[in-house]
Amino acid sequence: MTHAETFTLIxxxxxxxxxxxxxxxxxxxxxxxxxxxxxxxxxxxxxxxxYAAGEVFLLDLLADIxxxxxxxxxxxKHIIIHGSDYDLRLLYEEYGFIATSIxxxxxxxxxxxxxxxxxAPLLLEHFGVALSKEGQKANWSKRPIVDxxxxxxxxxxxxxxxxxxxxxxxxxxxGRVDWLRxxxxxxxxxxxxxxxKPDENSWRIGKSEHLRSRGLCVLYDLWHWREKQxxxxxxxPFKVVGNDMILHxxxxxxxxxxxxxxxxxxxxxxxxxxxxxxRALHAGLDRDPSTLPRRRSNGNDRQPLSARELERxxxxxxxxxxxxxxxxxxxxxxxxxxxxxxxxxxxxxxGEILLPWQAKLLQDCPAFAHEAAQG
Length: 375
Hints:
- By secondary structure, the protein is of the alpha/beta class.
- The chain contains 18 helices and six strands.
- It has helices spanning 17-25, 68-74, 84-95, 105-111, 119-127, 133-137, 147-158, 160-174, 177-191, 213-233, 243-254, 258-263, 274-286, 307-327, 337-345, 350-353, 356-363, 366-374, and strands at 8-10, 28-35, 45-52, 55-60, 78-81, 101-104.
- A six-stranded mixed beta sheet has the order 1-4-3-2-5-6, sandwiched between helices.
- Strand 5, helix 3 (84-95) and strand 6 (101-104) form a beta-alpha-beta unit.
- Helix 10 (213-233) packs antiparallel against helix 11.
- The chain is globular.
């Protein structure tokens, strides 16, 4: 395949026709997106890369372009994509786009137990192509987009069909093509949930469960102060102050040393926020713990496993790890930690909790079959 990095940048309605024509000719399309989540409070999709019918198109999603003709065509295309989870959720939330079928090259690499399954190491390994780290951290909302960013964006889709072909051939040898199809179909369904919405307990970050009442009060006020600051200046919350800093102050509050800890923090260029930051800290220290929202119970998922269930979980865990070693797979690809707990509680729901290929692997194991039969 060619390593040419030519592309067509689309930033006005009049430039959209060649892309639509290419999509009409193409049985499949490679896509990727670039967002501004590192620079704004609310994420926007800024650029969409598409490789169709041998051409790369870079679509400026911040321009005033009618996009319904694009989504109509993409809905009926097979899509090649790397790491689809974020992109599918983002495109669904922003535009209501739902893919029909995908080949996720990252999921494929994981099922082949590649130790490095990011796009950059895969492109370097197979094509000798290096992706600039600068592109990953670039501000994609700035206009005009600089040439080196556009070149970076082009590489994100240009090599996906060839990478797909290589990974697919390996999956076929191992008999895992259907495993990938099931995971890709599941990823499409998962994308319809969008991103988790903030609720009254979103402030419970990190290891907040280890904090006592005073620390929780400080964490509550500092987190909400940070959110207001971030929204006001339109920047990601971590750029106001990081999680480590507010968790450190919360832990210090539990030890009765919050003000001493605050006096030692260094804000650098953010020194102007010190006064409001300190007021938020005092608000937390003055807060009545009874005013904190209670963590909602989630039925059985919040209840500790019984002794019998813990024993069952251990047996399923051991079977999963044995299978993973034999198949040369990351064990969590067969069943995650959360899924193991679900299976320990309700082994009869094996087929609901896991994908068919995952369930078949475990249901053939004598120990799990015995537990499932006993209920």
